[in-house]
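re: that chain from earlier
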Amino acid sequence: MTTQVEIADYKRLAKRRVPKLFFDYADSGSWTESTYRANESDFQQLLLRQRVAVDMTNRNLAGEMIGQQVSMPVAIAPTGLTGMQRADGEILAAQACEEAGIPYTLSTMSICSIEDVAAVTRQPFWFQLYVMKDRGFINSLIQRAKAAGCSALVLTFDLQILGQRHKDIRNGLSAPPKLTPKHLWQMATRPGWCLGMAGTPRRDFRNIVGHVKGVDDMSSLGEWTAKQFDPQLSWDDIEWIKEQWGGPLILKGILDPEDARIAAQSGADALIVSNHGGRQLDGARSSIAALPGIVDAVGDQIEIHMDGGIRSGQDVLKALCLGAKGVYIGRPYLYGLGARGKAGVTEVLNIIRNELDITMALCGERDVNQLGRHNLDPISPLLKQL
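^ sequence. v structure.
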């Protein structure tokens, strides 16, 4: 049996164990996927300063994100259809995060519901909200998140209109999958996945089905969601959401310094520099390339987080060096989940933690909270572009 030692190993294993339409959903971007690829490749344009003959004992990775203690400055990004990578996927991932001491963020478009996850976890998780036209439903989602004890609301701001994702269109993506010959073949060649799905009732969007009038099956849900994402979303909506929520608020999807300045004045507690994993505006800059400009613009006014392209603990460290207070990982934990379930998520988080720890030591630092641009080599191509 091959030992998994890096994130790429879990990606290869997940590809063999997850039906193609759901693996492709996790592992793709919009249009030409240029931004999706840049999210990863631009990290290679940041070089690290190696330091020697320094005390590397008693290292610390713990810190805070929006005032909450974390064992390392990493959170799980909200990802739709997680429960289609592995049966009960959101539950398994949330439990792994709880044991690891990092925040788990549940997506509005999850397969397991808010209540499903709350029933099997003891520590508060975060909830990600899409703003839809049905404000009554949005308010009910917020109230359900409050009742479940969620400790932060992550408001996604970059999905007013869905970016075109060619693989999802070609695959006929839906949850549960349509029983076409193509999909039946994909599932038949993944017997472990099928066995898991046969043993759970959670196969559709349980935050929505049964909670919206007239949405009782997948055909009506597909029609409803296509019409519900709100293209008129504006900064004014934040105030209403803040009033309904009343707790820590994080704005996700900021990529431009001008938008960051507005976000900093919105009353939110943090913003996430993000291009939706390269799944929205193809041709936009990578998250790591956008991060330093946003830190320079508003880093003293609002807490800044980042997601997009994180594939190692070294990537985490580079984002922290550029001023992020915390980062989110999406695809790496989905690979772990699809490959080995809860154990795979735990193993991926351990890989990230170990790589972050060793890299930090070799850079001559003992405390993750002391990382900064002084740990990056000034000849780095990305730094020269700033």
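The domain at 7-122+168-230+271-384 is CATH 3.20.20.70 (TIM Barrel).
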